Amino acid sequence: MSQNSTRRLKIPALTVATVLTGLCVISATGCQVSLNGQTIPSPYYLQDDIQYFPAGPEFKLPREAAALKAARAEEEIERR
Questions:
Q1: How large is the average pLDDT for residues 46-62?
Q2: Which helix (H) or strand (E) holds 70?
Q3: Strand-pair partners of 38
Q4: What percent of the chain lies above the pLDDT cut of 70?
Q5: Can you tell me the distance from the alpha carbon of 67 to that of 47, in angstroms, rounded to the nearest whole number?
Q6: Which H or E run includes 13?
């Protein structure tokens, strides 16, 4: 056999330790995904505050709709 075929890749022990430590840290922190303004799942989801948003009006622009309706009515009166 030639010398090139028996040569092995030497990886320093510090590199291996760093990679293993990094994998442990990443796996211990948990994954977080932002979905509709919430962070799901959180590692502390049992201790998180619950956000409650009460139901509001179905139609968000009632004053603007009323103003447009009045303007259309006024135009109809002026056309006659």
A1: 80
A2: helix 62-79
A3: 35
A4: 66
A5: 47
A6: helix 13-29
Domain residue spans in the chain? 13-79
Burial of 10 (0-12, 13-18, 19+ CB in 10 A): exposed
Residues facing 40 on adjacent strands: 33
Cα–Cα dist 80/68, whole Å: 19
Strand partners, 34: 39
Segment 18-40, tens digit of pLDDT: 999 988 777 666 666 666 776 67
DSSP state of 49: P
DSSP secondary structure letters along 19-76: HHHHHHHHHHH---EEETTEEES-TTTTTSPPP------SSS-HHHHHHHHHHHHHHH
